[in-house]
Amino acid sequence: AGLICLVASEQLLFVQELFRHGARYPIYKESDNADLKSDFGELLPVGMRQHFILGQALRDRYVDSLRFINGTYRHNEVYVRSTDVNRTLMSAQSQMAGLYYKQGPTINNDSLRKLAVPPFAGAEPLLN
Question: Angle 8-74-66 (CA atoms, 0-180°, nearest 5)?
């Protein structure tokens, strides 16, 4: 992980964060563990938690302390990019959940809830 900050005249202008996915299951299919047969390379729950905690730390610094970004997500303040791999998408999603855990959008309409699906092939809806 890395963090790049641009400061001019003691005013924060730009922050760029680069990171890898969180803790994951093994990538190689050498395990005889039947529980892992369908999870090779997927993000572990602890990996999701790692990124959630990282998001909370970013919130403490850039929302609460420095007031650099708003506490509610605004598309013109934060840009997130990921590769199209489940573990990297879920890492980014978990980190954003940590960053905006205090206030986030709610989905009340059942037809809209069906749209809450991760953006990759064969995904199951996240909300039931």
Answer: 40
Q: Residue 69 corresponds to which tokens in the numbers above?
A: 């970004």
Please compute Rg for the chain using Cα positions: 17
How many Å apart are CA 70 and CA 60, to the nearest integer?
12
Q: Which residues pair with 11 in a beta bridge?
A: 8
Q: Between the CA atoms of 43, 127, 76 and 19, what dihedral angle is there, to the nearest 10 degrees?
A: -10
Residue of 116 and 89 predicted with greater confidence: 89
The reported pLDDT for the residue numbered 24 is: 84
SS3 78: coil
Q: How far apart are CA 44 and CA 91, in angstroms?
A: 10
Residues 25, 22: Cα–Cα separation, whole Å? 10
Q: Residue 122, by phi and psi: left (phi above 0), alpha (psi -120 to 50) or beta?
A: left
How far apart CA 95 and CA 85 sit, in angstroms, is 16
114 confidence band (pLDDT: 50, 70, 90): low
Residue 90 CA to residue 118 CA, distance in Å, equals 8
Reported pTM: 0.70
